[in-house]
Write a structure and sequence with these properties.
The chain is built from 10 helices and 2 strands; from the N terminus they run H-H-H-E-H-H-H-H-H-H-H-E. By secondary structure, it is an all-alpha fold.
């Protein structure tokens, strides 16, 4: 089955629908039109540039260039994790914790999936490695950002409760258990909801893309199951590590809660 190529006028028509929505929100004074137009422009520019980069990368296909692109994706994701928190840790700790969590979880799961489960030759073949890493990194970034935001906000707001528990003799792990549990749940909820609704409420993006490109639905389903399991593992381990490191950073060696280590994002 051949793939239907899209012409520029077809893409322009789709852009016109977004512009029509922006005009409607402007007329209704919903204050969304500017954000909508900027997001649409960023989408078009970013994806066009990524398309050019991937065309070059697929032609070269060396591990060095794939590794450089993966590092750039990781650093940008780390910056997004720090920027998405209302209260972040001072001194670049939020960036460091987020980046390290994603490096350990998303990269490990991606390499394991490529080398053991999918098995392309070579194992870092960009056709498989870049999309897989992108999906894992994106979902892990969302989970880590949500969990850290929930953790720092709830511990700052509930400072009195935690300090009372510490004065009663509880360890910092026990005094903060409720808040670490909520942070972990917040980080994992989008992934769990996505897995629970896949195939019934919606068809996941990768599976839809493969079917549109002519791949057998049976093969597309197998890949989608693999990807969803990999995303759940990567997001879960990343969120777990981020919550553990950030909550430890919220207490000093004498097990005192240090909300003064938080600063509000501008």
């Amino acid at each position: 089955m051949s793939v239907i190529d899209l012409s520029w006028w077809q893409l322009s028509l789709a852009a016109g629908l977004v512009l029509a929505l922006a005009v409607c929100t402007h007329i209704a004074r919903l204050q969304l039109s500017r954000s909508l137009v900027i997001a649409a422009l960023r989408t078009a520019i970013q994806l066009t540039l990524v398309g050019l980069v991937l065309e070059t990368l697929f032609a070269v296909g060396t591990l060095l260039w794939i590794g450089l692109l993966a590092m750039a994706m990781l650093l940008f994701a780390g910056q997004q994790v720090a920027a998405r928190q209302k209260y972040r840790l001072r001194g670049g700790w939020s960036f460091a914790i987020g980046t390290l969590s994603m490096l350990v979880s998303a990269f490990s799961i991606t390499i394991l999936s490529l080398a053991v489960l999918i098995g392309p030759t070579p194992w870092y073949q960009p056709q498989y490695s870049i999309p897989l890493l992108g999906m894992l990194l994106g979902n892990t970034m969302t989970g880590v950002a949500l969990s850290l935001d929930r953790l720092t906000e709830s511990m700052r707001r509930s400072r009195d409760i935690i300090e009372n528990r510490l004065m009663l003799g509880q360890t910092w792990q026990l005094a903060s258990l409720e808040f670490r549990r909520d942070a972990m749940r917040a980080g994992m909820m989008p992934t769990i909801n996505s897995m629970a609704a896949a195939g019934i409420v919606f068809l996941p993006g990768m599976m839809t893309g493969q079917i549109l490109s002519g791949t057998s639905p049976t093969i597309a389903v197998k890949y989608q199951i693999l990807i969803l399991f990999a995303i759940a593992s990567g997001t879960g381990f990343g969120t777990f590590l981020a919550v553990a490191l950030a909550s430890r950073q919220m207490f000093d060696k004498r097990e005192r809660l240090r909300t003064d280590r938080l600063i509000k994002n501008a």
